[in-house]
UniProtKB/TrEMBL annotation:
Residues 11-130 form the Glycosyltransferase N-terminal domain. Its EC number is 2.4.1.-. The lineage of its organism: Eukaryota, Viridiplantae, Streptophyta, Embryophyta, Tracheophyta. The keyword Glycosyltransferase applies. Pfam families: Glyco_transf_N, UDPGT. It comes from the Eukaryota. Belongs to the UDP-glycosyltransferase family. One of its GO terms (molecular function) is quercetin 3-O-glucosyltransferase activity. This is Glycosyltransferase. InterPro entries: Glyco_transf_N (IPR058980), UDP_glucos_trans (IPR002213), UDP_glycos_trans_CS (IPR035595). It is an enzyme of class 2 (transferase). Keywords: Glycosyltransferase, Transferase.
Length: 547
């Protein structure tokens, strides 16, 4: 009983955004903290995630429990496509908060929960922490560079890079919009190094059609607004992120950031089931790799929860892989929306040289000697895994933070090649450049090795371990950087009410962006009452009833 029994009362609850690329690093974080002793960790996920992963959380002795939160989203938990973004966002805002309060009560086992660790993209949990009086910190599971982009949304709007609904705007010259370049360079704002060559087409909410983009932008506005109440954020990345000293920028003001990644590299995780996944992996691909020559195989995977790249692109990519004449292992979900684009007879034509599986044990694949390069969507977990196992990359981002990651891989680290299109000749050319033993291939491999050394064996690992210890010490000592979030109204309503109050008093907004953000939220959130729409002139006041 003694100190260990007292410490065991330090219950920490973790709330990830419900996608594989977010749940995995959150589990790694929970295991890393629980492995230090004195922590009872509870990772709370929606029921549709738990149905896929609930049997894989048997970390004996790790004090990590994976528990479900009812979401109200229909899902059988099988190998079918998971719920879409709109369904997930609705569940997080309207169904899951009340159930999380119950999780917090149970996790404390009669005592107060020491801390709630919230994925910044699961910002719906921040008001729950405020209502329950629980200290909360944020967790950013991807590159810190992506956080800088999202945090700069007000600046992007005020300086004319994007509209109030997140749409990229062309350059303006002498008051006249002229598409001098199709998209403006984000580097001009000094948010990120100019060397990355990022532009406004690379922003994380630009997914799908206009309605999808506006909805996702409203989601990011809510995320930014709620995130302001988090005084500390743990980041699953390493200091500097491979940029030179002259390309480093100060973090956004008002918050404390602790780099704790890459989390998979901690030796504590080697004893854990760190390969937990929402999908059943096809282990036959390892036997197939065993029969291939060292460094000969092209591994192709575009992640688990991203939209298919489209039937035409699937067809062109297939033809490019065939034309390259090299062995390949392609992860392509066994679903019509993913495989319908394969050319007729393709699997028979490439039989023996190519293998297609619905899901692969990715860490095992990337560490295999037969794998020579990786055609990737540039998800952060996949990027880190490729670097960890010394695999050069061919980069084809699809959505979200992947465009920022691609810019670092290709332009900053020079550890990969950009695949600018999926047409047959382009795919064949990129594979040839990456796989050949010439100067470019050797340079890519040398740079991957350099990055591996930087993030796994250098100062970054010491900093990550120290920051994890500092975080736990902060919980024990009631550090002011780990505190209860301020009481929050639902963000859309709070932003609108603030802006309306200032307008009615004829006073200047506290921020130049306050009214713009309010208008954007009104325009994109159907739940906003008509009275608020009328006040902002976005719809007409109904005529008085006759008589």
């Amino acid at each position: 009983m003694g100190a260990e029994s007292a410490q065991a009362q330090r219950a920490i609850v973790f709330v990830p955004f419900p996608a594989q690329g977010h749940v995995t690093p959150m589990l790694h974080l929970a295991r890393a903290l629980a492995g230090r002793g004195g922590v009872a960790a509870t990772v709370a996920v929606p029921d549709f995630v738990h149905r896929r992963m609930g049997q894989q959380d048997g970390d004996a002795g790790s004090r990590v429990a994976l528990v479900p939160i009812p979401s109200g989203v229909p899902d059988d938990g099988g190998d079918e496509e998971p719920p879409g973004f709109a369904s997930i966002a609705h569940a997080m805002e309207h169904h899951m908060p009340a159930h999380l309060e119950g999780v917090l009560a149970r996790a404390g086992r009669g005592a107060a929960v020491a801390c709630l660790v919230v994925d910044v993209m699961a910002s719906w949990a921040v008001p729950v922490a405020a209502r329950c009086g629980v200290p909360a910190v944020g967790f950013w599971p991807v590159m810190f560079a992506s956080y800088r982009v999202v945090a700069a949304i007000p600046e992007l709007i005020s300086k004319g890079f994007i509209s109030r609904t997140g749409t990229p705007l062309p350059l303006s010259t002498n008051g006249i919009n002229e598409a001098v370049n199709k998209h403006q360079q984000i580097g001009d704002l000094h948010i990120l190094p100019a060397k990355l060559e990022l532009n406004t087409s690379d922003l994380p909410w630009l997914v799908g059609g206009a309605a999808s983009r506006e909805s996702r932008f409203a989601f990011w506005l809510r995320t930014v607004d709620r995130g302001k109440s988090l005084t500390s954020i743990l980041v699953n990345s390493f200091p500097g992120e491979g940029a030179g000293d002259s390309d480093r920028y100060d973090p956004p003001p008002g918050q404390h950031f602790l780099h704790v990644g890459p989390l998979f590299g901690d030796e504590l995780l080697a004893r854990a089931n760190s390969a937990a996944t929402m999908w059943r992996a096809d282990s036959t691909c390892i036997d197939w790799l065993d029969r291939q020559s060292p460094g000969s195989v092209i591994y192709v995977s575009f992640g688990s929860w991203v939209a298919p790249i489209g039937q035409d692109k699937i067809a062109q990519l297939a033809l490019g892989l065939k034309a390259a004449g090299r062995p390949f292992l392609w992860v392509l979900r066994n679903h019509p929306s993913w495989r319908a684009g394969l050319p007729d007879g393709f699997t028979e034509t490439v039989a023996g040289r190519g293998k297609i599986v619905s899901w692969a044990p990715q860490e095992d694949v990337l560490r295999h000697d037969a794998v020579g390069c990786y055609i990737t969507h540039c998800g952060w977990n996949s990027t880190l895994e490729a670097i960890r196992h010394g695999v050069r990359m061919i980069c084809y981002p699809i959505s979200g933070d992947q465009f920022v990651n691609r810019a670092y891989i290709v332009n900053m680290w020079e550890a990969g090649i950009a695949l600018v299109g999926t047409d047959c000749d382009c795919v064949k050319d990129c594979i040839g450049r990456a796989m050949k033993g010439g100067e470019e291939g050797r340079r890519l491999q040398d740079n991957v090795a350099r990055m591996r050394e930087a993030i796994l064996a250098g100062e970054a690992r010491s900093i990550a371990k120290r920051n994890l210890d500092l975080f736990l010490e902060g919980i024990e000592n009631d550090d002011t950087k780990i505190q209860q979030p301020k009481s929050l109204e639902p963000p859309a309503r709070s932003i609108i009410i603030r802006a309306l109050a200032r307008e009615q008093r004829n006073t200047k907004p506290k921020s130049k962006m306050e009214k713009h953000m309010a208008q954007t939220l009104i325009e994109t959130d159907r739940r906003i009452p008509n009275a608020l729409r009328i006040a902002f002139g976005l719809c007409q006041r109904p005529p008085p009833a006759p008589g």
